[in-house]
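Sample entry copied in:
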Amino acid sequence: MATAFALSACSSGGNDNNQSACGNASTRYANPANITENAASYGSIDEESANVEALPASVYPKGSPVDMWGKLKVDTNAAGVRCLCSEKGEPVQLRGMSSHGMQWPGVATLTEANIKSLRNDWNSNIFRIAVYVDEEGGYAYNPTHRSRFVENLVKWTAENGMYLLIDWHVLTPGNPLSPIYRNRPESGKDLAADFFTYCSRRYKNQKHILYEVCNEPNGVNFENEKHDGKMYPEYWNPRVTWNENIKPHCEAMLKIIRANDPDVVVICGTPHWSQRPQDVIGNEPKDEAGKPYDNLMYTFHFYSASHNDGRHIETDVKFWDVNFMQFFKEGCDSVPCILKNLPIFVTEWGTTDAGGWKNFSPELSDMWMKIFSGDNDGKQVVSWCNWNFSSEGGACAALKWNDGNLDPFDKNILTESGEYVFKELHK
């Protein structure tokens, strides 16, 4: 399982009742004993994090995205729908790349020169750093990821006038309340609370920072559910829910972040590998006084060959007859139009299937790009980060191994997916 999930953060969730209501997909699940972890108590926070000195406000290059749009916020568009907006309340669309895990060799791309290239050559206005936690060599085992990669990327993106999305990459385990994140068995440390305490204090004066507090919450049963040697979605059993696991985590992180940076944009993951933002509608996080949080958005992740209009494409992860596009474009009987009801940020998407290794699908990617450019009933323009800016991560990775240069930029280094996204960023 380490290889399958470590090399790609690609979504892997299955069907459910609401999704199948717009199609004919099966809703039969396996029903093993429920093993969802709920953290009864949380661990400690380091004194260094609780007292870290804030960086002085950055000065952004004249005419850069951050110079033009300032500190972003969630406001309404002309249709009265909540969306990501500039400091002045004008809808904006951020478009850029996500890193892979910092611990893997193909992510040697996180350099000062490459961030400059992403702005000047690629025309990106945002970069997302994926802070994997418990995966091999992740943050739990190498806290210098924070002092090295995160700190450097805050500096480099500021110097180029780009926004930086700092992502707490919940993936394995999929429950954000797991002690692995909230009360480490070996130390009693609350890694998530410590991380967001540090970041929200350290970067509170920066206009270009956004936070993603849980990447892809998920929970499935993988045991004895293979048929003909393959895993089929109708046998996957979701356990990590919005009400029981994800919303409480988001509220806990929001309490920390808002105490230090009251108006920074925060993005919450949604159930089933961030494929079910509809579970949030009418039930958004609230503060201790019962007031819904402002400047809050919700995640949707998709991989074009797997999550589309329900067509039958032979992929390892199948969602045949499940019309994901309809949920966002106009809604259906059981799923109201998501882009009329929630401010959405696609913090991760791929041009391939959900495994990330095959089925490059530019036409289906085009259909998603059209919806997120405002072709939906909410007229919401949706920001996105493509998975991923590395040479390790399958067909959905943007870069080839050892083929051409990033500095100076050479287009020969681009994969099919990288070439597609590069062109998209110049539209």
Q: What stands out?
A: The first helix runs from residue 2 to 6. The domain at 2-26+42-424 is CATH 3.20.20.80 (TIM Barrel). The two ends are 38 Å apart (CA to CA).
